[in-house]
Amino acid sequence: MAIQSAEERSASTSSGFVYISVGLVVLLIAAGLVATRPMGPTLAVFVLAVLLAFWCLGGLYMLQPNQAALLLLFGSYRGTDRERGLRWANPFYAKTKISMRAHNFNSEKLKVNDLRGNPIEIAATVIWRVDDTARASFDVENYEAYVLTQAESALRHLALSYPYDNLEEPGAPATTEVTLRSGTEEVSAALRDELQQRFDQAGLVVVDARLTHLAYAPEIAGTMLRRQQAEAVIAARTKIVQGAVGMVELALNGLAERGLLQLDDERKAAMVSNLLVVLCSDHDATPVINTGTLYA
User: Fold this and answer.
1) For residue 82, how many other CB atoms are within 10 A of its CB?
2) pLDDT tens-digit series, residues 222-235
């Protein structure tokens, strides 16, 4: 048998200022009657007045901004009151106050595997609030504990859906694959969508969700750091070589156009070699004076 989901509805309530005024006036009248005419009929009126006063005063409750009251009558849901201020409802109603404010949840660091099987550490912050008080109260046992469990589950599933980073081989074409490290907005949107799907059952709304911690697990962090450093060195060297080749080409073309030197292929090769050594070297070039000839 399928379990029917609860749906929030508005409760029939009133402003509490009217009832508190009536209750106080009735008590004053009853006290005045007893003081002036302490007889049998007066006592009966006094008892009725006290019961009426308790009826008026017993149903009072107060709601702050972004707070709601769930009203139950002997276990039966009678509605939700979202009006702020001093309110009144049937004194027999059980009134459970629920905060509608935004809640902030910071997950613990979870050790999981990414899409490629690399162990990583990941954590997130989730901002959520109650949207449907009936579903939050009746469809799950404890909606705050439900948030903690579902947020951890969604975060683990997110880590399994994306690689930590692009590990491209040198010279391979660049890819547009979304990763946990580079696709911040895409990953955050995916996390919010998955959390919202899980929170719908409890009548909760995800305001925002973002990763707060992302790193390789300690056992592979050193290896991955060396790989990243090597990739950075290769990328820098590639850029330097490309720039050096362009400068050598510019120098040879400039000399040829101006007719300053007539170089055969062997001298051009020697000049290119010397220029590339100077331009690509990690250290300042040390000039060497050649006292001989290239053909000696």
Assistant:
1) 17
2) 666 666 666 666 66
